[in-house]
Amino acid sequence: xxxxxxxxxxxxxxxxxxxxxxxxxxxxxxxxxxxxxxxxxxxxxxxxxxxxxxxxxxxxxxxxxxxxxxxxxxxxxxxxxxxxxxxxxxxxxxxxxxxxxxxxxxxxxxxxxxxxxxxxxxxxxxxxxxxxxxxxxxxxxxxxxxxxxxxxxxxxxxxxxxxxxxxxxxxxxxxxxxxxxxxxxxxxxxxxxxxxxxxxxxxxxxxxxxxxxxxxxxxxxxxxxxxxxxxxxxxxxxxxxxxxxxxxxxxxxxxxxxxxxxxxxxxxxxxxxxxxxxxxxxxxxxxxxxxxxxxxxxxxxxxxxxxxxxxxxxxxxxxxxxxxxxxxxxxxxxxxxxxxxxxx
Length: 344
Description:
Blueprint lengths: L48 H12 L9 H20 L7 E6 L8 E6 L3 E2 L4 H4 L4 H14 L6 E2 L1 H13 L5 H12 L12 H6 L18 H18 L12 H7 L12 E2 L3 H18 L4 E6 L4 H24 L12
Parallel strand pairs: 3-5, 4-5
Antiparallel strand pairs: 1-2, 2-6
């Protein structure tokens, strides 16, 4: 609902044709919805199950006793839900997130889907481009690599390596096996080693700040950086404690395909990466080609809604995840020259 898609996707259940008109006045949402005498019922459409479900949630948070036509009720429900979502997600600027509420015609209950519309490398700010000590940058990169996948559809270096291993080397991870695979299956000339992509060459592209082994211990980081990393870990721990069935940030693949069967046409690769494209442009392009043509697996979470009580829990988990992402955003947007501390 909030936000606008930035690219074309394969046809799926996110854009379904509206239900047919019906004169059934029982299709009402929220508390009481009166039909205006000057609006014939047959000219209106019944409220969908998702509008009725979220309408109950809206009504439970609205002390007014105003009555609405179905059309006005639909607009009121959507605006109230949108405002509540945007109030939580709007401070996030480093990733573009939006929600879609699905009717679940074939599944039996509506569901809220959280989608990431950002594509490409996540902007790593000072971690990637500053002159700050390698040990500071490595500590922050390692923390983001370990935690961001809890909320965002994103892949790191090891994910990229695994994809490239299957793409070029039939799953081989060492140079000898990869070279033999290139010769046997791709007709490579063993005399042209300098032109061949091998595991060791790929690993050699990693800048020092991508290596966790170069991270400084927390105690040796400046106080401002320690606070930011502790906040990141604390908010991440809080998010991991949210039950799966009430979380805005998790999904079961089997259930996802039931709600959105056409998404199987998309690439299984997430749309975002923590891998610096400056160093791995060819590899990212190779593994991302299918996604650029057919769409990426851009789902951040899917939560079925058996009853309106789940919606409050969903919003609570959305807020917990947003607090974690704000902590990550703050870490990325730090100004290292203002942190002080001893360079290690």
